[in-house]
Amino acid sequence: MRDFSRDHSALALNTATLGHNVDGFGAGWSAEQVIDGCAARGYGGVVFWRREIGANAAAIGQWARSAGLKIAGLCRSPFLVGPLSPRGREAVLDEFRSSIDMAAALTAPVLTIVVGGVEPGTKGMSESLKIVADRVSVACEYAARAGVKLALEPLNPVYGGDRSCLVTVRDAVDLCDTIGADNLGIAVDVYHVWWDTDLPAQLSRAGARRIYGFHLCDWLADTKDVLLDRGMMGDGVADIRGIRKTVENSGYDGVCEVEIFSKDNWWKRDPNEVLDVLVERFRSVC
Ligand code: ZN
User: Fold this and answer.
1) Ligand 1 mean position to 105 CA, how many Å?
2) How far away, in angstroms, is 75 Cα from ligand 1 center?
3) How many H helices and E strands in the chain?
4) Is the pLDDT of residue 209 over 80?
5) pLDDT (mean) for 149-155
6) pTM higher than the cut 0.90
7) Which is deepest, 86, 123, 193, 195, by most CB within 10 Å?
């Protein structure tokens, strides 16, 4: 397991931590300001959301390279199924392809997939997961031609209805096995997996070749909002170091991306303060 106590070169910022991906929140820093703030502090990477990139993917990618900062990924695909997804298979695939194009232009190696919830007119997860398998399979071929990897991110089961019918690492690895594409893997987010006692066995199934991302935050024991009240690392009940050990024992050696949705706490603070606290917590509790 890597020692981060005096080295945060593996620390990456997911810009959700600054609130920029939700209307009305965040300090309004431009993508370039975010890159410069991370580079100045010795971060190893940054992960943007599509809404921050717009038509400027190539220029922002160039800005990051000039600053010596890696763009570690892009969030995220459209929802592929469920009540929040675009209507119909072709509309979903169109937006999926344009997300892949954006990742390629940005030179982000990985596009995260959040699959969406239960398809209207169906019950339970099985039918929706079949639809997901079809759409991801089509997108994998397109992404392979663009040189982009796709990372299925299982979400905490609290989001099962509307945001993700994929709620366990087990099901995510099963989907990878079913689809069998070389550029399809998983993203492991502490917020979504901290409760899962089967995690070591499932991550060992996934192995290094299928773990494309590791996301850091914490689960607050008295969380007020399961979407927008994530905790800073060290403030909650997740065994962050234990999970990282499991992820790294499975062969992952990439960046660790801090992703904290926190509308009443961290999003209200100066981004400079947030970026400094991340470095300190990364070294002391991750
Ligand atoms: Zn995540």
Assistant:
1) 22
2) 9
3) 10, 8
4) yes
5) 98
6) yes
7) 193
